[in-house]
Design a protein that fits this description.
Elements (H helix, E strand, L loop, with lengths): L3 H24 L3 H20 L5 H27 L5 H30 L1
Helix pairs in contact: 1-2, 1-4, 2-3, 3-4
């Protein structure tokens, strides 16, 4: 892995895959598990793609998509908790990591916009 964000988003994607498996096996939750799998793994995929960006604009675009996917993943995590598919304890650390990744991505996107405006 090239950087800390790539490593963190990859590790987060692994947690999401494991969460999907848990939801299917233990909660018989198929629909929401597919949704969170798509958005939660897409964060890291877009961060990885951004590392190979062809331009600053391409980099900013990929990071912005990753940010949107992080926001969507946070939504699905909260919904799983609100519908009793995840307990508060099960939700806590994965939601915290999602929020931290979202903050990092927000900072990168904001900085990228400032750089492209100069």
């Amino acid at each position: 892995m090239q950087n800390d964000l790539e490593r963190r988003t990859f590790d987060f994607a692994v947690r999401i895959v494991n969460l999907k498996d848990y939801l299917i096996e233990n909660k018989k939750e198929f629909d929401l598990s597919r949704q969170i799998l798509k958005s939660g793994t897409s964060i890291g995929a877009n961060v990885a793609e951004a590392q190979q960006a062809q331009s600053r604009a391409d980099f900013a675009s990929k990071m912005n998509i990753a940010l949107k996917e992080a926001a969507e993943t946070k939504f699905w995590l909260k919904l799983l908790n609100a519908t009793n598919k995840l307990t508060d304890r099960e939700l806590d650390s994965i939601l915290q990591e999602c929020i931290e990744i979202e903050k990092i991505l927000y900072s990168i996107v904001r900085t990228s916009k400032k750089t492209s405006e100069e």
